[in-house]
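seq:
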Amino acid sequence: MAKAAFSKKKALFTSKLDLNLRKKLVKCYIWSMALYGAETWTLRAADQKYLESFEMWCWRRMEVSWSDHVRNEEVLLRVNEQRNILHEIRKRKANWIGNILRRNCLLKQVIEGKIKGEMEVARRRGRRRKKLLDDLKDRRG
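struct:
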C-alpha cells in the first residue's frame, strides 16, 4: 500500500524540489502508511529485512536513476540519511507500551501476562512465540 502511494506521488518525490522537503514528505506521507500499527508488531528477522529494503527502495527512487549501479551506502550519502525505519518502530513501540503500562486496564494485564488461560494443547511445536515485552527487552540491549 505504501509503495502504491509512493508511485502515485512519484512526480512529486522525484521533482526538483529541495531534497530536505522531499525527505520530509516521504517520512510524513509514505512512512505513516507503511508503519501503521507498528506499535503492536513483533518483528522477525525477515520482517526487519523487508522494512529496511522498503526504506532503501524509497530513497533510491528519489535520488538515483534506474539505470545507475549505486550501492546502498552511496544512496544514503546522497540523501544524507541513515537507515532509521527500525529505530522509528522501536521508538513508537516504547511510547505505546509506556502509555499502556501507566494505565490500569485489561490490556495492561494481558501484556504483563497476568491473565491465565487454559490451552487444550499442552505444548506447541517449535520455538516459543515472542511476546511484546520480550521483543522490547531484546531491542533495549
